[in-house]
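Sample 3 of the quickstart, ligand iron/sulfur cluster:
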Amino acid sequence: MVTKAQLGKLGLFDAKVPRYTSYPTAPHFAGGVSAAKYSQWISKISPGAQISLYVHVPFCRRLCWFCACRTQGTKSDAPIIAYLQTLKDELAMLARRLPEGVSLSRLHWGGGTPTLLSPAMMTDLAGAIRDVAPFAKGAEFSVEIDPNEIDGPRLDALAQAGMNRASIGVQDFDPEIQACIGRLQSYDITRDAVMEIRAREVPSLNADILYGLPHQTRARMTDSVQKLLSLNPDRVALYGYAHVPWMAKRQQLIPSDVLPTPQERLGLFETARKLFVWDHYAEIGIDHFATQSDSLSAAQREGRLRRNFQGYTDDPSEVLIGVGASSISRFPQGYAQNAAATGAHTAAIRGGRFSTARGHKFSAEDRLRSRLIEALMCDFRVDAREIRDRFHIGKRRLDDLLTGVSGAFPGLLEVSKDGLFIPPDARPLTRIIARHLDAYELDTAGHSSAI
Ligand SMILES: C[S@@+](CC[C@H](N)C(=O)[O-])C[C@H]1O[C@@H](n2cnc3c(N)ncnc32)[C@H](O)[C@@H]1O
Ligand code: SF4
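Result:
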């Protein structure tokens, strides 16, 4: 049994560590990856391959104080109309460079708030995407939906375009907490959005909720989770609230003296976790839950769970292309990120160039460490045979890497000839453990707390 004191001693309550949705993490991307390199990587995709596409819409009608996403508020439609044209031009440029026969295994619209697009804009965007590549058989099309920013006609347009997974932002149901984080959203609004989504026979529903919010207590967390469970989501992402007011200036509106302590955050996470488990949800990686029949649960059982920028996925594609300002693409050769500012992104696309501003080319060492970290984040284990077969490294080299990690956590991790295993009561430390396999310097200012 690992005690709270032990977890604390190992850094759980004061370490700042990445969430490892990529390796290396985005702060290590640099200028070495150009638009020409990005185009070259696109042209290297195998003809007939299945790829994933992420479309970023960096606008919101309201700006929630807690939000650390890259987005801008707008009341008028003018910047959205201009941005949509940029997206369509970027998609057309992509279509011209993609090899023959490529299809989409996953399509995700994220933001910001993609549902602030009008129904006609959604249909237009979906058409431009269809001109790039058709959906592969069994493809998933997911959209981030703000329940405050959706209605029947927009859901009709999304369903018509083939959306089969809706992802709603809930955060918390408690009115006092909502007021304090600048995001008012009654239970009725959320429930009505869910009913409207289900009325269109969208087969899968994801919900995001947060722990570690101001004024959150275990009792309030219980109440919020029970309200969420009453809506029967297929998947839940239970994110720790990242309070980084020096980066996300809006968060300065949230007083830090009403935030739970790191020890309390652990209690809040555990409270929510137990409620999902009691309700028969499978625990997926460090912070997701899914019904037993959900494809993410099957992927976890079968060792096919992967980690990407959206968190956990069962997407087997080797290539993820991100379009829109600040979007990141992943290729077998490395990462490429578009210009972060919408102005710079639009200027490049208008000039007939991709806006690639930075990225990272993988070395053999990056690939190895990336897989080791992904395995820990997804399965809480490293399978020695898989790693040796896949990366052609000797037993000695892998042993050195794994004993280096286990040595930093005496008596906590299981190491054997089969690999390394994080037992359940040590799992709150997973990101800290993964950090020991990260060969890059860590700028702690850019990361959130370990719990
Ligand atoms: C792009 S936003 C959600 C989409 C939509 N705009 C909405 O608000 O419903 C994606 C998710 O990021 C998470 N998020 C945003 N800011 C966060 C923060 N500071 N810490 C942790 N998670 C955060 C929220 O759970 C949010 O639902
Ligand atoms: S939580 Fe959603 S609606 Fe609120 S600011 Fe962030 S992206 Fe926009």
